[in-house]
Structures
1.
Amino acid sequence: MEKIIVRGGNKLRGSVKVEGAKNAVLPVIAASILAEEGTSTIHEVPALADVYTMKEVLKNLNAEVSYENGQFVVDATKELKTEAPFEYVRKMRASFLVMGPLLARIGKARIALPGGCAIGSRPIDQHLKGFEAMGASVEIGNGFIEASIDGRLQGAKIYLDFPSVGATENIMMAAVLAEGTTILENVAEEPEIVCLANYLNAMGAKVRGAGTGVIRIEGVDKITAADHTVIPDRIEAGTFMVAAAITQGDVIVEGAVAEHLRPLIAKMEEMGVGITEVSNGLRIVGPEKLKAVDLKTMPHPGFPTDMQAQMMALLLQAEGTSVITETVFENRFMHVEEFRRMNSNIKIEGRSAIITGPNNLQGAEVASTDLRAGAALVIAGLVSEGITRVTELKHIDRGYVDLAGKLFALGADVERIQQVEENVEEAAASLETAASLSLNTSTN
Ligand SMILES: CC(=O)N[C@H]1[C@@H](OP(=O)(O)OP(=O)(O)OC[C@H]2O[C@@H](n3ccc(=O)[nH]c3=O)[C@H](O)[C@@H]2O)O[C@H](CO)[C@@H](O)[C@@H]1O
Ligand SMILES: C=C(OP(=O)(O)O)C(=O)O
């Protein structure tokens, strides 16, 4: 079984470069299949498990794809197939983002129903409401969602009940080839939405208002491939900012865009962390003592849910009582049990976690429950007494390129190892898992 082993106590120093954003690149790759003509080259594409899954989804749809040295090249000019099987959607919900482009381009899509995951039930009703408003008929059966339209989608006025990131992206991609104008209200305003809109516009779409609460899309007759560079990953940047702060370190996070990180910067500054903009990113200086703060996760520009677990690790070290309220996902406190194994004082009351600190954290064997939880446990290990062993690294690999290696380069005592099992039962269980993993990933 692979583990990340952390021995706490080292202060982080130096520079770390962030990758292109996972949550921007996945919709951008999905959008690339809108192009009936030409080849798109997408730059700054991080080598993440999710990117390889998306590559398989596109290949399965009959697009020609290559991915080398951070460049993802897509030629989707051949006739596309309509189906994304459960094999992919199960590994990564973002596979569902090909539904909008397929409907727009070929009028039909059959995608496996995503189902729930560790952080919540994650329905897709808002995506479907958008497609139906544009004239598509949607049917659910046998674990699949089938959407189709005779002729072209029709522009429509659509109000989202919640500013869902995925629904905003999926509907936006469908609307670029619709007949007439689509007005999308109460949409997500995340930087990743702006990144997608910029790519769509480079391909000849007419999308206005991305980054605000209302997006207006004038349908066009044809989309042509284009080159695009993905924005830096604000969540990876935030993860290193927290790692620097918790160790009283002094780190430059290269590529961090302050504008994308306002809510995190504000909260970390309230805690006493020194943050300054420098020419190539952000410099983070961790204080000797951290102050407790309250925070609530919200859609952008509110505090990002994807930074909640990492901030919990930081708040464990703060003096006093902090309250974290998770409003975006109903079940995103799975890491609390793992933090408790590291000797921390956290109470859960409904959607809030009440943290009393500072905690005298102790190393333990803990499991990543999702990608951000995994990163947060590694961060907690950086200031724990003794050795922390983090397992279930497949989650971390969905969202971080070489997390252990990058922390090591900053001076942390961190390594990723393949541990030989100590007894026969464990070895057998591990072999079984490895066999099923290799079956699941054999297409990657
Ligand atoms: C690949 C990607 O970009 N993932 C991000 C994206 O996920 P994702 O796009 O799945 O997140 P959404 O913004 O859609 O989900 C937010 C909330 O809305 C609910 N909802 C969503 C759609 C819908 O049709 N109905 C509905 O009720 C979800 O269950 C959830 O409670 O945004 C999340 C919220 O910032 C981030 O945590 C994820 O990292
Ligand atoms: C929850 C996340 O991603 P996804 O929506 O891909 O599961 C995340 O990036 O923290």
2.
Amino acid sequence: MKKVLLYKPIPEQELKRLQTHFDVIQFDGVNTLNQEAFLTALSETEGLIGASADMSSSVLERAPKLKAASTISVGTDQYDLAYLANRNIPLMHTPGVLNETTADTIFTLIMCTARRAVELSNMVREGRWTKSIGENHFGTDIHGKTLGIIGMGRIGYAIAKRAHLGFDMKIQYSNRSQKPDAEQDLNATYMDMESLLKTSDFVCVMTPLTPETEGLIGKAEFAMMKKSAIFINGSRGKVIDESALIDALENGVIRAAGLDVFDVEPLPASSPLCKMDNAVVFPHIGSATSETRLAMVTCAVDNLINALNGDISENCANLHLLEK
Ligand SMILES: NC(=O)C1=CN([C@@H]2O[C@H](COP(=O)(O)OP(=O)(O)OC[C@H]3O[C@@H](n4cnc5c(N)ncnc54)[C@H](OP(=O)(O)O)[C@@H]3O)[C@@H](O)[C@H]2O)C=CC1
Ligand SMILES: O=CC(=O)O
């Protein structure tokens, strides 16, 4: 039986399924305490499956027998796609199954920031609700406003669908390529990023983290946004310059931010973002519902079984590089 290294706990039923196909070595995450044992196990493995751990080339150099990797995520930034392709190793991922749940989470961020839900709920819990709410605590409307999406992919589209159909929002987007579906179905307008930043009430980033998108939104971009703009990041922390965002929030350059992802995760409690009323911070929970996380694991297990049997026709993230 082929040896497979599992580096994240998964539901029993999916573990059993993996074990019927492979000899599975399990790690409950990778950390400084188990790093050496992990690297030793890696030296024997032909398949790798898990999430939320660095799998860059310096780690994978320790896996000379590796034939396929399967990440339990749609984002692939913890791997080096080109390095894997050079070694002819496919990286499988889980696109699609988490679109709707992640869009729900992003919409929760939009609503919490616009209506100051966390800040005002904390006021009630802490006994600071002493009179009826006045202008100082008013939020801002969501319906009828303009939502600018940077990265109109699968999840961007699911967010735009909620905004257009549910909240009567005007949708504009910037993206590497134009999206006729979003334009036809949701009346979305394609524009360059600068125009989008200047004219959106809500700016939502949903690109993958790649060398091209790292640091995409920084000081200059926050300065272009409306003073009343609400910024949402559901992609990856490194797509934005977090210190520039903190500055923009502290100095009233923009109104508020809703964040599911951060430069360093878990976000240290000492981060200024944890103390700001105009920042809503979530612990990277875009896809974190029982149903969707199970669907992702099922997809990732299927992906690894298929890939180790030579079938990478579905869900291979570096197929374009393998074909070169
Ligand atoms: N917060 C969370 O829990 C979650 C976060 N994510 C993050 O969201 C990302 C997007 O997921 P998903 O929608 O499935 O991915 P998609 O690939 O479907 O969408 C990404 C979009 O970004 C566009 N894009 C890529 N590079 C650039 C660039 N340099 N400039 C402008 N646009 C660019 C792509 O353009 P084109 O169509 O032309 O390729 C594509 O439309 C994931 O990679 C992950 O990092 C995902 C799930 C949950
Ligand atoms: O961040 C989550 C993912 O699936 O990517």
3.
Amino acid sequence: MGVTVRGLCVEGPGGAPLVRGVDLRVEPTEILGLVGPSGAGKSLVAAAMAGLIPPPALARAGRMDFDGRTLNMTDPRQWRGLRGRGVFLLMQSSAAALDPTMTIGRQVAEALSANGVMAPKQARDATGGLLAQVGLEPGLQRAYPHQLSGGMRQRVQLAMALGLRPRLLIADEPTTGLDPIMQAEILRLLRLMNARHGSAMMLISHDWRVIAAMAARVAVMERGAIVESGPTAQLMASPRHPTTRLAMAALRELEAARA
Ligand SMILES: Nc1ncnc2c1ncn2[C@@H]1O[C@H](COP(=O)(O)OP(=O)(O)OP(=O)(O)O)[C@@H](O)[C@H]1O
């Protein structure tokens, strides 16, 4: 199965081109890395693949083959019923992903029951276990999102994803702004979801070290387009595009400074 995106174009206000004809494929059980400088359009590609582009930007063209269907990316209504168990977007801003008016426990339980994974009572009973799997105390079920740190909110989103077992998980900068221990923990959970649940995954990061550790294949974006893609090790060893070359030089400098 997996997912194929063809000809995705996203525009901003006044028709400004933000994503220009992106094609990509994520194989059923792989982790594809999507990397590139800030503002390249990575988050917009992620959002478009979940039918969740935030206005005023909107998709002008694009098709996505997923789950035996071809979705027209200009029509977000086509994602109805697919979000959650089909496509799960682990958002960069974990604050925006959670409802501020609902307790954590209720949100996780409702995500499971609304998606038909479990009956409401069963979902309530399962919530503590899912939170424990992501290292959160069961008592946090009664907390509201604003009472949690950014890392904890990321883990709440992951607990939902663990329960839903989406066929495609898109993780948009899941470790940005987290301390190194939390970063490693989140990456471990993502690997587990990919390996144990067989979720195809697209992992967005501007950190090549994260991409190298997680993704066998990578696509590099710049100014709204994919400029280079291929096996991560190969691409890092012999980058062709100037952007990738610059990124590799910066990475080597960083590593030399550390040594
Ligand atoms: N909802 C939106 N409406 C209008 N313009 C947007 C919207 N979201 C992003 N943009 C613009 O589109 C461009 C690409 O943004 P995007 O957030 O996709 O980049 P990115 O590669 O994910 O960057 P970062 O690594 O900083 O998150 C930027 O110039 C941004 O200002």
4.
Amino acid sequence: MSSGSLRRRAQSGILARLRGHLVVSCQAPAGSPLKATAHMYAMAEAALLGGAAGIRAQGYDDVQAIARLGHPVIGLIKRDEPGSAVYITPRACDVELLAAAGAQIVASDATGRTRASGETTEQLVAAAHQSGALFMADVDCVDAALAAVEAGADLVGTTLSGYTLGPIPHEPDIELVAELARRLTVPVVAEGRYRTPEQVRAAFDACAWSVVVGGAITDPVALTRRLVSACSHHLLPETLGDDA
Ligand SMILES: CC(=O)N[C@H](C=O)[C@@H](O)[C@H](O)[C@H](O)COP(=O)(O)O
């Protein structure tokens, strides 16, 4: 058995560690003052202290640092490529890098949109498996999920639901979680716009394997904005100005 297959067999224990648990996505958006590996590492430590079972992390350096904490890591590399809308781990070489950095699971766009490289989901799955990692398909709909499982994905996330067509909804897509859990035999991860304990519970009620929460925990800029929008200075008539 190749070293990749041996390592991958060990990784299936990773799925058991995530079952029924919260995974926290520790990623800082471009321009955030928190965009540094040290900050994301501290964020991951805080999430684990709070009871998260795993971390979703972006970029080689963050994945490598966070993997040292000894908990399951879902790794991805976000990269815009000309001529394609695919930006989550678009290439097989990204998959190999993430596995080398210590990600036991590599997440990649599996929406069915064409990758700039022309590589297929089968090729990215093969790269993950040869590197000893599991492949998480980030999908937006049922058809994409079915195709990803056919291509060999080990787990499927609703990560990209609401991000491939029209305006981004406010609520998470719990219906998609329920539908995928009914139709797939691989674990279904609920991800995207989860903000409250009620939503997390609803995802588990819909048979999610794990729930990934990002911005509601790790984006203080967005969290501050939400509360600032309720402050009374927004309600003052403009004519009063700041000195009133
Ligand atoms: C759509 C996309 O690019 N999602 C990314 C995937 O890695 C991240 O930016 C999200 O933060 C993550 O999916 C968690 O979602 P939320 O931050 O909504 O809890």
